[in-house]
């Protein structure tokens, strides 16, 4: 009887241990590509998917959106708004959505999602903010606590991707 209980307890412990591994593996099952943001103020981009590879770029912009285009174990091949590609550790990324103002000149941040709405303020290219899913060509943004709507065409990160949930 004691051996049966020990066998059952061992089996249960093994199931719990395997369940702990399932969550990280499921995160890798996400469809590609998808959006992520830089989790920290300083994030290294590397030539390959390991800390052994040389750093090719150091981002100093927490919350900046990147497009994840490939997964390899704990690393993500990402592309930034300029088309630069490289590997970043998954621990350095967050799945939150953000947008970065792109294009020439100031982008109008409006009170509502239409061209007739009053302009609350204007944002320079490179400005980053939290973003809700875009609809009808407009994205609701929170830029340093100020909220408004920006035309989706002026934002890197506005496009709906296959892996976005």
Structure report:
The protein is of the alpha+beta class. It has 2 domains: 34-96, SH3 Domains (SH3 type barrels); 99-156, SH3 type barrels (Roll). It has 1 helix and 14 strands; from the N terminus they run αββββββββββββββ. A hairpin with a 6-residue loop joins strand 11 and strand 12 (138-143). The model is unreliable at 9-27 (pLDDT under 50). Keywords: Signal. Pfam families: SH3_4. InterPro entries: DUF1058 (IPR010466). This is SH3b domain-containing protein.
The low-confidence parts are 9-27
N-to-C span: 49 Å
Query: Could you estimate the helical fraction of the residues in percent?
Result: 10-25%
Gyration radius (Cα, Å) is: 21 Å
**Which class do the helix and strand fractions yield?**
alpha+beta
Mean pLDDT, to the nearest integer, reads 88
Number of helices: 1
Count of domain modules: 2
CATH class of the largest domain: Mainly Beta
InterPro entries: DUF1058
Pfam families: SH3_4 (PF06347)
Keywords: Signal
Protein name: SH3b domain-containing protein
């Amino acid at each position: 009887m004691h051996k049966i209980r020990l066998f059952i307890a061992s089996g249960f412990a093994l199931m719990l241990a395997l369940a702990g591994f399932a969550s990280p593996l499921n995160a890798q099952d996400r469809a590609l590509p998808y959006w992520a943001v830089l989790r920290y103020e300083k994030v290294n981009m590397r030539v390959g998917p390991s800390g052994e590879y040389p750093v090719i770029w150091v981002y100093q912009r927490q919350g900046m959106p990147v497009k994840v285009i490939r997964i390899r174990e704990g690393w993500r091949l990402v592309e930034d708004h300029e088309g630069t590609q490289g590997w970043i550790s998954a621990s350095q990324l967050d799945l939150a959505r953000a947008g970065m103002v792109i294009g020439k000149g100031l982008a109008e941040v409006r009170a509502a999602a239409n061209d007739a709405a009053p302009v609350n303020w204007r944002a320079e290219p490179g400005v980053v903010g939290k973003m809700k899913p875009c609809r009808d060509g407009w994205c609701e943004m929170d830029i340093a606590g100020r909220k408004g709507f920006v035309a989706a065409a002026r934002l890197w990160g506005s496009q709906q991707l296959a892996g976005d949930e």
